[in-house]
């Protein structure tokens, strides 16, 4: 069953700058979907359009439609979209640095009670390291611990769809593996769908059921994990592999994309 449907959206900044053009994607119940692409491809803008945070940047969905659980949500305010069950873990400013870990987890809730205690236990279940650090000020956490806290805080909002922006940014590979493993556990145990925006195709395709590749504000390729991992251009330009060797995107002088990407 389709939970989120994004249909041919166009996002315009300051009424003149088109950042996303004709993007279509979907996320089913209990599915992990990755949105891949290099910096500036339009991934975060697409995520902001879904979560309602475009207004903070003087932008809006000018064309197309976004529906969640059958209801239209395009250009609705963030608090309304969040109340429907779409919760964003942003790329930056993930936690309140002057609050403790426990206070950060309590912040999304309107009031205390048995429900809060249950959610606390759930957050610590997925991220036991946070239970050890619950009295520590969040500003003293490592990057990986902050990302744990940001995801745990999002779980306190009881999401049906979790939007995660740049999970791996600035983190060591071992921390990324731990976090992606926990996302899979969250999906499996809670039945939460996840839309993961990532520059690291390696990290995202390790857990995604389906993925979309964006460039210059458009989706240029999509498919299940096996298709993208086996696609020659994805291997060369996103997984850094060619003829069995590691290869950096920056070493490629010209990107000759297959014409079938646009078919």
Secondary-structure map with pairings?
Elements: E1 2-13, E2 17-28, E3 32-36, H1 43-51, E4 59-68, E5 71-72, H2 78-84, E6 86-89, H3 101-106, H4 114-126, H5 128-132, H6 143-155, E7 161-165, H7 173-190, E8 193-198, H8 201-205, E9 210-215, E10 218-224, H9 225-230, H10 232-237, E11 241-242, E12 245-246
Parallel strand pairs: 3-8, 3-9, 6-7, 7-8
Antiparallel strand pairs: 1-2, 1-4, 4-5, 9-10, 11-12
Please tell me what the overall shape is. Answer: globular
Mean pLDDT: 86
**What would you call the quaternary organization?**
single chain
Number of helices: 10
Output the helix-strand order.
EEEHEEHEHHHHEHEHEEHHEE
Tell me roughly what share of residues is in helical segments. 25-40%
Q: Which percent range describes the beta-strand content?
A: 25-35%
Taking all Cα atoms into account, the compactness measure Rg is 19 Å
Low-pLDDT segments: 242-263
Can you walk through the features of this model?
33% of the residues lie in helices and 28% in strands. The protein has 263 residues and is an alpha/beta fold. It has a 6-stranded mixed sheet, sandwiched between helices.
Short synopsis of the structure:
The protein is of the alpha/beta class. 33% of the residues lie in helices and 28% in strands.
Features of the shown structure:
disordered C terminus; 263 residues; 6-stranded mixed sheet; alpha/beta
């Amino acid at each position: 069953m389709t939970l989120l449907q994004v249909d041919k959206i166009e996002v315009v900044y300051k009424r003149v700058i088109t950042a996303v053009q004709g993007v279509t994607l979907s996320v089913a119940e209990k599915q992990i979907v990755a949105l891949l692409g290099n910096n500036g491809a339009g991934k975060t803008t697409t995520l902001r359009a879904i979560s309602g945070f475009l207004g903070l940047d003087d932008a809006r969905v000018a064309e197309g439609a976004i529906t969640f659980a059958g209801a239209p949500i395009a250009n609705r305010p963030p608090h309304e979209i969040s109340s429907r069950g779409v919760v964003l873990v942003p790329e930056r400013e993930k936690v309140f640095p002057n609050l403790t870990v426990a206070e950060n987890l309590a912040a999304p809730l309107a009031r205390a009670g048995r429900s809060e205690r249950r959610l606390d236990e759930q957050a610590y279940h997925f991220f036991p390291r946070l239970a050890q650090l619950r009295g520590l000020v969040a500003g003293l956490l490592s990057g990986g611990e902050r990302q744990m806290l940001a995801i745990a805080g999002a779980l306190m909002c009881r999401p049906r769809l979790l939007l995660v922006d740049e999970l791996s940014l600035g983190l060591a590979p071992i921390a990324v593996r731990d976090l992606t493993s926990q996302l899979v556990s969250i999906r499996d145990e809670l039945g939460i769908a996840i839309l993961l925006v990532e520059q690291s195709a390696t990290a995202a395709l390790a857990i995604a059921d389906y993925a979309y590749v964006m460039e210059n504000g458009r989706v240029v390729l999509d498919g299940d994990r096996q298709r993208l991992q086996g696609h020659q251009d994805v291997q060369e330009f996103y997984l850094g592999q060619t003829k069995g060797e590691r290869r950096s995107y920056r070493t490629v002088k010209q990107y000759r994309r297959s014409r079938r990407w646009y078919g």
